[in-house]
Amino acid sequence: MEEISKTEMEIMLVLWRDGPLPVRRIVEAVYDQHSQSLHTTVKSLLERLIRKGFVSCDRTDHVHTFKAEVVREHFVQSQIDKLADNVFEGNVASVMLSMVDKIRLSPKDRVTIEKILDKLR
Predict the structure, then answer these.
(1) 36 in a domain, yes or no?
(2) Of residues 60, 61, 67, 65, the one with CA closest to residue 23
(3) According to the 3-state scheme, what is the secondary structure of 30-80?
(4) Cβ(83)–Cβ(96) below 8 Å
(5) Domain that holds residue 114
(6) 21 in Cβ contact with 14 (< 8 Å)
(7) Buried b vs exposed e over 8-33: b needs ≥16 C-beta within 10 Å?
(8) For 18, which of 12, 29, 36, 65 is 20 to 30 Å away at the CA?
(9) What is the DSSP letter of 88?
């Protein structure tokens, strides 16, 4: 899976959260405002995401709508795999242990992790 920039990631987060949207709504979600220059910037970023296979555009209506083509969970898994390969010599368990060791977990998060581990046993 290709790399994406921080701003492209912000666009993907909006599309994953809110579903297919026109450019204007994406601009407003990312920047909390709308201007022609922001519209042009986001449109260019969306075109890059289309070329990378992350986004598609429905051009059947006057207002084009953009939607995520990459499932968020698949993207997250690919990022974890890259981190494991590049930093932990391919050891995903080391990635997970490092994450759990370095972050503060709420009681709810701990229960969720324990349930996931129970399923794996």
Answers:
(1) yes
(2) 65
(3) HHCCCCHHHHHHHHHHHHHHHHHCCEEEECCCCCCEEEECCCHHHHHHHHH
(4) no
(5) 72-120
(6) yes
(7) bebbbebbeeeeebebebbbbbbeee
(8) 36
(9) S
